[in-house]
Amino acid sequence: MIGASFGLLGLSHYLCGPFVGKKSFLMYAIVEIAGHQYKVEKDQQVFVNRLDVEEGKKVTFDRVLLTDKDGDVAVGAPAIDGLAVHAVVERHLKGDKVLVFKKKRRKGYRKLNGFRASLTEIKITDIKKAAAKKAAPKKDNVDWINVVWNF
Question: Which residue of 1, 11, 40, 49 has the fewest C-beta atoms within 10 A of its own C-beta?
């Protein structure tokens, strides 16, 4: 009965949210960046391991492992051909300090080390088809024995 009374007062919008019963049109992708896998969406900011790219430059990641758009899931084997995630490098920074403490009891052995990860903050601009890659020039069919043994 509580839901009905809220419905009469017009408060159900606030309780259930404005998109109840509507499909979401968000697209997300799982992409491999610098050896790690991230779930990314458009306009999302992600902290990744340090990339060798200047701040403000655009970068493209073409190793997309999975995409989902409106429940239509595409899984690569291992990656999806022709799809890329485009991003802009926002800034380079260092992460929080992590303290590593080692101790062996009754031996007087204590070591304290600190570590700060080098990170890059990127902003995902788009998930779309990648530009067509240029085909590699065809190599002549040379007999490999002649090449190896110099006959």
Answer: 1
What CA–CA distances, in Å, run from 99 to 23, 56, 118?
Answer: 45, 32, 15
Residue pair 109/103 in contact by the 8 Å Cβ criterion? yes
Contact 118/50 with Cβ under 8 angstroms? yes
pLDDT bin (cut points 50, 70, 90) of residue 30 is: very high
Task: Give the C-alpha distances (Å, rounded to integers) separating 138 from 131, 147, 150.
Answer: 21, 17, 22
pTM: 0.67
Q: What is the mean pLDDT of residues 55-63?
A: 96
d(CA 151, CA 149): 6
Q: Which of 63, 57, 76, 77 is nearest to 35 (CA)?
A: 63
In angstroms, rounded to a whole number, what is the distance separating the alpha carbons of residues 30 and 108?
47
Q: What is the pLDDT of residues 93-114, one digit of tens each?
A: 999 999 999 999 999 999 999 9
Length of the chain: 151
